[in-house]
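hey m, so remember when u said the tokens were messed up on ur end? i reran from scratch. heres the input so u can diff it against urs
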Amino acid sequence: MTPKLTYDVYIAASPDRVWSALTDGGLTEQYFYGTRVKSSFERGAKIDYLAGEMKMVEGEIVSVKKGKALVLSQQFLWDDKVKADPASQVSWQLEAAGEATHLTLVHDGFTAENETFKQSAQGWPVILSGMKTLLETGKPLKLPAMS
């Protein structure tokens, strides 16, 4: 069985606001480990996450349903261990839930529990918590430095 990471979170914000948090580099910079997303968000387009001028993640938009779903093929680049791993796939699904949004993230396409899988398992809870905090309070989540 191939490994897969799945997360469900409810955010007290509209799907449009959560979509903006996924696609607006000024917002991703506040919760996605300081990286700014850059893409046209059209099927087949490139997508990058940049820390200043340094590319931390590069990929391609596999499919997009504005305000509802985004599927990416991504290669992580921040260290030599993850650079050696093959690309994997990240799927974001947004669904209205009353005055909130039910966000489901699935990260799969791994060939094994490789370094990308291990680092992603630690990173996604921080990213999702950061997004939720930012959208619900208007302030970035402040955590102690992680080693």
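this time it looks ok to me. The first helix runs from residue 15 to 23. if urs says something different then somethings off w ur setup not the seq
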